[in-house]
Write a structure and sequence with these properties.
The complex is a heterodimer of chains A (155) and B (170).
Chain A: H1 2-12, H2 23-39, E1 45-51, H3 57-65, E2 74-77, E3 81-85, E4 94-97, E5 100-101, H4 103-116, E6 122-127, H5 133-145, E7 150-153
Parallel strand pairs in A: 2-6, 6-7
Antiparallel strand pairs in A: 2-3, 3-4, 4-5
Chain B: H1 2-15, H2 29-44, E1 63-64, E2 74-78, E3 82-85, E4 88-92, H3 104-123, E5 133-138, H4 144-157, E6 161-168
Parallel strand pairs in B: 1-6, 2-5, 5-6
Antiparallel strand pairs in B: 2-3, 3-4
Classes of the chains: A alpha/beta (155), B alpha/beta (170).
Chain lengths: 155, 170
């Protein structure tokens, strides 16, 4: 039935059932996909920069640039709580367990600091000795998201 | 007899130009769909840079939102058991003395690396000398105490630009 119809239509000059020639597409797929699969890297590595104050010239320039912002924000990390200290602001301790603190509270407090000192971009993180590296990275991420990209770590 | 049969089938095949009896069509639609999805996914995750930094199997890096790409530099890898500098095991974590805050074997190795890179820098102005860049690949389970001592040791040698390696979060 179908074939008959198609023949009739072809006869009339209105071809309906046309086949797309997919050979070229299949060829390009068969070459591209193995190539991309081989070069694909599924784990992408990034870096977080930390710069210690150094005594050479580059370090001096950096300190001169940062001299205007003298706001000292210190975030203490303990096993069970976070404590943010900022000049002129009083914050409650942020409760939590190891590796999982009340992040929304931390973000809110950091935003308070940001609204009081809009130019301030520095924060000092001071973890206890037993804090895990992963926790420190998570907290550094939180600080960067809240607008404090210049993070220092103090022991 | 046989030839006749063949010729009749041949006639059938050639005679019907529109209806090809005896041939069959592959249904490629779903395969093409799958390939298209695969292609889009692979093109999305494709990076032309290649991987500069590689990570050992027993090292689990923490995740971060950072998007800064690493450059070529020396790597201090800190697993649960070993401190490894550029693929060379330096010290066991258990055997590091807790009385001295600096890690002496690491200090010696970093001083050696520094003198090598300074020597390369003196050879030719085109060569990259000592820049003070170092990458720290820390396992996510190591404590801050150990990390602090490693960073202090790196800082003592003059490696002040530390890059903490992390896995990019999607």
């Amino acid at each position: 039935m179908n074939i008959k119809q198609s023949i009739r239509r072809k006869g009339r000059g209105h071809p309906r059932d046309t086949d797309v020639n997919l050979t070229a597409v299949m060829n390009i797929f068969l070459i591209l996909i193995p190539f991309l699969l081989l070069t694909a890297s599924f784990v992408r590595i990034a870096v977080l920069e930390l710069t210690l104050p150094s005594l050479d010239r580059a370090g001096q320039q950096a300190t001169v640039q940062n001299a205007q912002s003298t706001v000292l924000n210190i975030l203490l990390i303990k096993e069970t709580e976070l404590q943010l200290n900022s000049p002129g602001l009083k914050f409650d301790k942020i409760a939590g367990r190891t590796g999982d603190y009340n992040w929304s509270e931390l973000t809110a407090q950091l935003q308070q600091v940001k609204s009081k000192f809009p130019d301030s971009e520095d924060i000092i993180i001071s973890p206890e000795n037993t804090i895990l590296y992963e926790t420190i990275i998570v907290i550094m991420d939180q600080c960067r998201e809240a607008g404090f990209p210049n993070i220092s770590i103090s022991g | 007899m046989k030839i006749e049969e063949q010729s009749t089938t041949l006639k059938l095949a050639t005679g019907s130009t529109r209806i090809r009896r005896g041939t069959f069509e592959l249904r490629l639609t779903s395969m093409i769909d799958m390939f298209t999805i695969l292609l889009v996914f692979l093109l999305k995750s494709y990076s032309a840079d290649g991987q500069i930094m590689t990570v050992a199997n027993d090292l689990r890096l923490p995740e971060s939102i950072s998007e800064k790409q690493p450059t070529v530099m020396s790597v201090v890898a800190v697993t649960q058991e070993w401190i490894v500098v550029d693929g060379r095991p330096i010290a066991r974590i258990d055997e590091i003395s807790s009385s001295d805050i600096l890690i002496q074997p690491l200090l010696r190795e970093l001083q050696r690396l520094r003198s090598i890179s300074e020597g390369i820098g003196e050879l030719s102005s085109q060569m990259q000398g000592f820049r003070g860049n170092i990458a720290i690949q820390g396992d996510k389970e190591i404590t801050f105490d150990l990390l602090k001592r490693i960073m202090l040791t790196c800082g003592q040698v003059g490696y002040n630009n530390m890059n903490l390696a992390v896995v990019e979060k999607e």
